[in-house]
Amino acid sequence: MIKQTNIEVDREKGNFHYPTDKYAFDAGVGLSEDVVKYISGVKGEDDWLLNFRLKAHSIFEKKPMPTHWASKDLENIDFDVIRYYLAQGQQPSRTWEEVPDDIKNTFERLGIPEQERKFLAGVEAQFDSEAAYSRMKEDLEKEGVIFVGSTEGLRDHPEIFKKWFGKVIPTSDNKFSALNSAVFSGGSFIYVPPGVKLAQPLQAYFRINAENFGQFERTLIIADEGSEITYMEGCTAPKFETSTLHSAVVELVALKGAKIQYITVQNWSNNVFNLVTKRAMAEEEAEVKWIDCNIGSRLTMKYPGVILRGRKARGEVLSIALANDGQHQDTGAKMVHAADETTSNVIAKSVSIGEGRSSYRGLVQIPGHLKHCKNNTECDALLINSSSQTDTYPAIAVKGDENSVQHEASVSKVSAEQIFYMQQRGLNQTEAMSLYVNGFVNDLIREFPMEYSVELKRLIDLEMEGSVG
Amino acid sequence: MNSVTPTINVNNSFASTDFFNSFLEKRSWEPGWLADFRKDAWDKFIALPKAKVKDEMWRFSPRARLGYSNFDSLKESVKQVTLLNQNSNGAIFETFDQAILNNPNLLTHLPNCTGPELGSQESFLLGACFSESGFALKVKKNTKETNPFICKHLAPTKNQTLFQQNIITVEAFAQVTLIEYFDSENESTGGNLTNLSHINLEEGSKLTRIIIQRVNDQSTFNHLEKVELKKNAQFNGISLQLGGAQSRVESRGVIAGEGSDFSNHSLSLGRRGQLFDQRTIQHHLAPNGKSNLLFKNALLDESKSIFSGLIKVDANAQNTDSFQTNRNLLLSGDAEADSLPGLEILANEVKCSHGATTSKIDEQELFYLQSRGISKTLAEKLIILGFFEEIISKAGSDDLVQMLRELISDSFTD
C-alpha cells in the first residue's frame, strides 16, 4: 500500500491475507463516489448522511496535501490501493502460529492477558469482554448514558448526535478530516446526561459486536452540563494492521461545567500512517484534557485541540512521543481561546531514539477582545543517539494587554554522569538508559490510569533495548 | 491625442526589459561581470514563481503591506551613504560605487552571496539587480579598530524605492565595531529602503554591529542579512528598530567554523499601526559553536510584531549551545504579538532551548511607581526602558550604551 521508499520499514511484519471472495460486502480498492455510496448503502444511512459523505469526498479530492509545512513522506501514500471499507468478518485474519515471534515476545513482556493477545495480534477479530461489559452496560443504561458505534449513533439517536456531528471539526478542516468524513465507519458515539459523573473510564473495546479500531473511525463524545467522563482509546500493546492509512476524527463537546478526559495510547506497527484530527469544544467552566501517548506508527500527525468557547473554560494537552528508527512522531496541540478567563496548558515530552524524529507543532491563539486568558506551553525533547532528530514549531498569536502566554522548549541528551552513576550502582547501560527515559517522562505517565502507566513503563524498557552501544 | 507621461509601476517596470536595459545603460561604466550579475539576478526575478497564499515564511504577515506596490518608482539621483571613520588602521571603508571603481575585488564574491533565504526572495533579487548604493568594509588581518565605523543610510521619500548592498569582511583576528543608522531624507512622505548585508567573519575575528533604524512613519524598511562565521569568529549584533510604517528583517547566522559565537539582539518599540516582521535563523554547521538570540518587542497602540526564529543544528555540529528568546510586552488592547519559535536538532550533544513569552506590564510595578508620584505614562516609559536595558547593555562600551539609552528615551517624546 506504500510506494517504494528508501525508508526501512519491515513490510513483511504481520503478513496478513484477505480472503475477500467469501464476503458479501466488498467496496474494493481505491476511492470513488461509488465507494462512498456503497459504504453509505451498506450501513443503510439516511440521505443527509449520504450527501454529507459525498460532499466530503469532493472536498477531499480538491484539497492539496499539506506538504508545504508537513513531512514529504505524506506523498508516499497511494490512495488508490487502499481498502476504504471492510465489512464485518472481512477483517484480515491469520493463525496464532503466523504471529511473528517478536510480537509474541512483546505481549509476554508487557503481561497482556492471553485473551487480549489473540485479539491484538489479529487472530481474533473481536476481543471478548462480554462478562466485564454487560454489568457495566446495565449501569450505564441506568444513568442514561448512550454508548454506541457511529452508525448506531446517527441512526438511533439523531436528535442528540446530529447537532454536533461534524461541527467541532468541519469536513473541510483538512484533507484527512475530509477523507474520514467521506468513508468513516466504527468509532464511538457517547452522550453523558447532565450531572452524571462516570466513575469508571469507558473504553472502546468494552463495546462488543462493533468495529472497534477502524481505519477511519469517527468518535463523538458529548458531555452534557456538569457531567464527567473519561474515555480511553487504544492500548499499549502493539496493534498490527495491514491497512497502512489510519485517519480518525474525534470530536468532543463539553457543555457548561462538564469535564472530559480523553486518553489515547497509540502503538501501531511501523508501516502505518496515522493521520488523526482531534478537537474539543469547551463551554463555560468546562474542562477538557487530552492525554496522548504516541509510540508506534511510521508517521503520526496529530494535534489535539481545544476551542475554549465559554468563560473560564480550561484546556489541557499532555503528550508523550517516542520515535524510534524509521518513525516520525509529528504531534502537538492547538489552543484556541475564544472567551474571557480561559486557561490552557500544554506539556509535551518527546524521546528520539536511533534515527527517530519527533516534532512538536503547536498553536496558541488569543484574540484582542479577551481578558485574563493564560497559556503555558512546555516542550522537552530528549535525544538518545547521535542520529536522532527533534524539531519544535510552535505558533503563538496574542493580541491585547490583558492576556499572558509563556512558551518554553528545551532539547537535551542523556546525561553521561547520571548514566555513569547508575552503572556504578550495578545497573547495565540499557537498564540505566531505560531508567533515565522513564524518569524523563515520569511526571506525565503518572497522569495515566494505573494499569496504563505500568504497561507504558515496560514499553519504554522495550523500546530502549538495543538503542545503546 | 495628448501624449500622457506613462506612470511607472515598479513591479511592471522591474519586469520590463526596457526598464532594465535603461538601468544598465545608466550604469554602463560598471565592469562587465557586475552587469552580468545584475542580469542574472533580473532573470531569476522574472522567473520567480508567484507567491503562494500559504507560505510558512510569511505566516501571520500581512504580506501585501510589505510589497513594492506602494513604492512605485526607483529613486532618482541616488545620494550614496555617508561614511564616517577616524584613524583607521588601514581598513577599506567605501561606498558601493567607490568600491566598484577602487576595490572591485571586494565585490567579486557578490554572485556567490545567497542572502538569508527566509522568504523575501523578491527583495533579495531586486536588491542584487538594482542596487546603486551601500558600502564595502574590509578590516585588515590582526588589526584592532578602536574607533567605530559609522554608516548613515538615507531612506528615500516620495514613494520611491532604493536598493542597497553592503559587503562586510573582517579578516582573521581583526576586531571592529560598526554602527549603521537608517533615517529618512525628511518626514513628509514615505519611501522604501531595501538593504542587503553580506557579512563574512574570518578566523578569530570579532564584529560588533549596531543598527539604529528610525525611518519615517510612512516608510517601509526591508533588511536582509547573512552573517557567516569562520573558526572562533564572534558576531555581536544589536538592533534598535524604532521607525517605519512596516519593516521586514531577515537574519541568518551561519556558524560555519568550529567554536564561533553568534549573538543577535534586537528591540522594537511599536507605536500607532507599526508592523515589525522579524525572521531569523541560527544555523549550526560546525561543532562547539554558540549562538544566542534575544528579541524584545514593546508594543503600544495598534502596533504588531511577528517573530519567527529557528535554531537548526546539523548532525555534525556536536557540543552546540544555542538559545533563542522572544519577549513581548503588550501595552494596549489592540497591540498584537505573534511568535513562531522553532527548533530543528539533528545532533545529540547539544544544549538548546527557546522561550517565548507575551504579557502586559506588571500591575504591581506600575502601582509602585505611581505611588511614588510618577505619572502613569512616565511609569510605563520607565518600565519599557528597563525592559530594553538587557538588549542595550550588550553594546559593550559605556559610551555606546549611554548613547543608545538616550536614543530610545528620546524616541518617546514624539
Keywords:
heterodimer, A: 469 residues, alpha/beta, eleven-stranded mixed β-sheet, eight-stranded parallel β-sheet, 19 strands, 29% strand, globular, disordered N terminus, B: 414 residues, ten-stranded mixed β-sheet, nine-stranded mixed β-sheet, 8 helices, 39% strand
Task: Reconstruct the topology from this structure.
The complex is a heterodimer of chains A (469) and B (414).
Chain A: H1 33-42, H2 47-62, H3 101-110, H4 114-120, H5 130-143, E1 146-149, H6 150-156, H7 158-161, H8 175-183, E2 188-192, E3 202-203, E4 218-223, E5 228-234, E6 245-246, E7 249-254, E8 259-266, E9 273-282, E10 287-294, E11 299-302, E12 305-308, E13 314-323, E14 328-337, E15 343-352, E16 357-366, E17 374-383, E18 389-399, E19 404-413, H9 416-424, H10 429-445, H11 450-464
Parallel strand pairs in A: 2-4, 3-5, 4-7, 5-8, 6-9, 7-9, 8-10, 9-11, 9-12, 10-13, 11-14, 12-14, 13-15, 14-16, 15-17, 16-18, 17-19
Antiparallel strand pairs in A: 1-2
Helix pairs in contact in A: 1-2, 2-8, 9-10, 10-11
Chain B: H1 10-15, H2 17-26, H3 32-47, E1 73-74, E2 82-84, E3 92-95, H4 96-102, H5 121-130, E4 133-139, E5 149-155, E6 160-170, E7 175-184, E8 192-201, E9 206-214, E10 220-229, E11 234-241, E12 246-255, E13 261-270, E14 275-284, E15 290-299, E16 304-313, E17 320-330, E18 336-345, E19 350-359, H6 363-371, H7 376-392, H8 398-411
Parallel strand pairs in B: 1-6, 4-6, 5-7, 6-8, 7-9, 8-10, 9-11, 10-12, 11-13, 12-14, 13-15, 14-16, 15-17, 16-18, 17-19
Antiparallel strand pairs in B: 2-5, 3-4
